[in-house]
Amino acid sequence: MAEKVEIQELNDVVVRFSGDSGDGMQLAGNIFSTVSATVGNSISTFPDYPADIRAPQGSLTGVSGFQVHIGADQVYTPGDKCDVLVAMNAAALKTQYRYAKAGAAIIIDTDSFGPADLKKAAFQTEDYLGEMGIDPDRVIACPISQMVKDCLADSGMDLKSMLKCRNMFALGLVCWLFDRDLNIAFNFLREKFAKKPGVADANIKVIQAGYDYGHNTHSSVANVYRVETKNKVPGRYMDITGNKATAYGFIAAAEKAGLQLYLGSYPITPATDVLHELSKHKSLGVKTVQCEDEISGCASAVGAAFAGALAVTSTSGPGICLKSEAMNLAVIMELPLVVLDVQRGGPATGLPTKSEQTDLLQVLFGRNGESPMPVMAATSPTDCFDAAYMASKIALEHMTPVVLLTDAFVANGSGALRLPDLKDYPAINPPYVPEELRGQWTPYMRNEQGVRYWAVPGREGFTHILGGLEKDNKTGAISTDPENHDLMTRLRQQKINNIQVPDLEVLGDKDDAKLLIVGFGGTFGHLHAAMDELRAQGKKVALAHFKYINPLPKNTAEVLKKYPKVVVAEQNMGQLAAWLRMKVDGFVPAQFNQVKGQPFVVEELVKAMAPLTAPEGASIA
């Protein structure tokens, strides 16, 4: 009889699932992260998709990965490297081993490491472990494909359908390794395959088989590990992706404002999931239109805004270029519109499944004329809910298009979201034209905040026309008068300047830091983790992370000028740094810039920033 296995407590652990793009690695990772979030662990995930629509099976370019970091305390990133690597074939081991820590446990399907598989993965010998310098004692090598076929031999399924369940065997083995509750995974599968109960039952059976394999053999690993939640906050939690959280944030804002939600969109990676999610919620009054192109997606949303809806248009990268004319139409018509830009690698088609922050200057300035527009950036998958809600509130209350930036890392990644109570969110009060102005109202009449009143079509006595030509400030008629155009330009700018956003918060050693790290959007977790590591080394470091970029928080200059050294870190060539230099006199920061299509690596950030905490004279590498 096997010896009793010791259960060892861990503070956090990183698991990476990898295999062919058809091997179900995203599903296995999603289930494991859902199981972990449900028991209260903090999680951060990173789905790493191949850019190929469907690469040849077993090829190096077709490997799909999903990394999840679970922690007893708050975790901010998916982790630089993993403690456990699941490699379902030779190509996955070849390409993904670089993401494994020294001494990481590696789970492989030996049935996918035959001579032909090794040749496709560019191995030179059949001793693939020796060729890569991997210690065999850290490898859990099992014939997963054969065991899945044996497990489902009496299921009536064909061979291809059986092998689609291989990912569940690996998941079951990982669940055993980390003492996870299989019932949560079972419930997930029953819900996902509610219309195909036979498929659900087969996957459940295979998960159990993988768990039992680990339990019965101990899988060459001495211990079972458990990550207990230390600081549980009461409430209902769900594992949610950034795109889904964004969709829910828009729905919540429409509900709070008492409006119907309209999304005009054109499918584009990695923003399409927002369209998919919102299309499921017709019962909540959500209207979605998949348009023929990016231009019509945005133009239809402008029409919906004119008609009195919370209007949203969504896109990624190249789509922002195409939408710019219609976005400008919303600027001059002063209509509420939220433009969601899920940033991806560029330029042009670039890296459609990878993540960057390279659209910032485009959304700030990428339109003709003086075209001021509020810009926000979500900081994490779960923050996407709040960011979408607040972007909608700003658009509706200030009668302006608003750009909400996320990115592929935030949009596809996930976190444990404590389900919000809408009563805790601020009211949304659009500036409807008061009844007492009936008979004297004109289209560009403004309230005390300089915001144009909103007259929804169909309201008797408030018939009006808006369009793309400049209008007279008093009458709303077409005007080419120079003084009027100058006035209208300044009024549109002042309206944006008047928007009140929260002060910039400083984290860490905010009173006596020698170095202030500055970033925006989806790099928050990595920069926070880098700050934590530097502080653990005894260095005085703080972090100021921008969520509101235009207008900037009122205390921006005060914060940036307070510290001896400042480094702006971003996944572009210095766009936020340029914007801050433009807005804050005398601000000359150090910069850390990478454009790799991959998230920051905390270890690299720490190594680059450590010299800046030294006495005067040190500089960033």
Mind sketching the topology for me?
Blueprint: E1 6-9, E2 12-20, H1 25-38, E3 42-48, E4 63-71, E5 82-87, H2 90-96, E6 100-109, H3 115-120, H4 128-132, E7 139-142, H5 144-151, H6 159-163, H7 166-177, H8 182-192, H9 197-217, E8 223-226, E9 237-241, H10 242-257, E10 261-265, H11 272-278, E11 286-290, H12 294-306, E12 310-315, H13 318-333, E13 337-343, H14 360-365, E14 375-377, H15 383-398, E15 401-407, H16 408-412, E16 414-418, H17 482-497, E17 506-508, E18 515-520, H18 524-536, E19 541-546, E20 548-550, H19 556-560, E21 565-570, H20 575-583, E22 590-593, H21 602-609
Parallel strand pairs: 1-8, 2-5, 5-6, 6-7, 10-11, 10-12, 12-13, 13-15, 14-15, 18-19, 18-21, 21-22
Antiparallel strand pairs: 2-4, 3-4, 9-16, 14-20, 17-19
Helix pairs in contact: 1-7, 1-8, 7-9, 8-9, 10-11, 10-15, 12-13, 18-21
Task: Describe what is shown at a glance.
By secondary structure, this protein is of the alpha/beta class.
Molecular structure report:
It is a single chain. With 621 residues, the chain is α/β, with parallel strands linked by helices. 35% of the residues lie in helices and 20% in strands. A seven-stranded mixed beta sheet has the order 11-10-12-13-15-14-20, with helices on both faces. It is globular. The N terminus is likely disordered.
Radius of gyration: 27 Å
Main sheet record: 7 strands, mixed
**Protein structure class:** alpha/beta
Q: Alpha-carbon distance between the termini?
A: 57 Å
Keywords:
alpha/beta; 621 residues; disordered N terminus; 21 helices; seven-stranded mixed sheet
